[in-house]
Amino acid sequence: MAHLGKPLVVRLVAGAVAIFVVVAVAYLFTRGEDEVAAADAPEVGECLAMSGTLAVSEHEEKDCGDAAAAYVVTSDKGGCDKAAELPYKISSSDKKDGDLADLCLDLNASEGDCFTLKNAESFSVKIACDEAEGDPNAVRIVSIGKSADQCVTGTQPRKNATRDTLLCLGPAT
């Protein structure tokens, strides 16, 4: 009796392996890029310089002592303090996959730092205090404490109850 080719089981297994390889390669070229982006998302404690608008933004990781580093990542699990933190989501290019990172950003502030605080469409920016003259949104960090503390008269409190911090803001000039 003549052999008519490979047994059916061998052909089915070879076909299944080929399908698996095609699916795996497709996954690596699509979803794999998103996972790399998620792995590269800033971590808690890292500082960022933000650009663009609140609706369409980009970040650049900076040393926290860098003058351009206006924000620090305070959470990578969302749950931002609405009064003090800025929610920042890093999304997949494929909208149905959702967000790759759900970060909270707060001002990267030390006592004596000056900022031009954000408006409805832009990011706060750390500035040199001597450049703040005439800027109505410019403030100086007068003191930093716990959220239960009180600011001295003439300063505005910026409480972050979620992280138990208080920034007391005064005039920049």
Question: Which key terms come to mind for this protein?
Answer:
about 170 residues; 2 domains; 5-stranded antiparallel beta sheet; 1 helix
Describe the structure.
It is elongated, with a radius of gyration of 25 Å. The strands form two sheets. Strands 2-1-3-5-4 form a five-stranded antiparallel beta sheet, covered by helices on one side. A five-stranded antiparallel beta sheet has the order 7-6-8-10-9, with no helix packed on it. The protein has two domains: 8-38; 47-171, no CATH class. Strand 1 (47-52) and strand 2 (57-62) form a beta hairpin. The termini are far apart. It is built from one helix and ten strands, in the order H-E-E-E-E-E-E-E-E-E-E. The protein has one helix at residues 8-39; strands spanning 47-52, 57-62, 71-75, 86-91, 99-107, 114-116, 125-127, 138-145, 156-160, 165-171. It is of the alpha+beta class and 173 residues long.
Task: Describe the secondary structure blueprint for this structure.
Blueprint: H1 8-39, E1 47-52, E2 57-62, E3 71-75, E4 86-91, E5 99-107, E6 114-116, E7 125-127, E8 138-145, E9 156-160, E10 165-171
Antiparallel strand pairs: 1-2, 1-3, 3-5, 4-5, 6-7, 6-8, 8-10, 9-10
Q: How would you spell out the order of helices and strands? A: HEEEEEEEEEE
Count of helices? 1
Low-confidence stretches: 32-39
- Global structural class: alpha+beta
- Widest beta sheet: strand line-up: 2-1-3-5-4
- N- to C-terminal separation? 100 Å
Helix content: 10-25%
Rg to the nearest angstrom? 25 Å
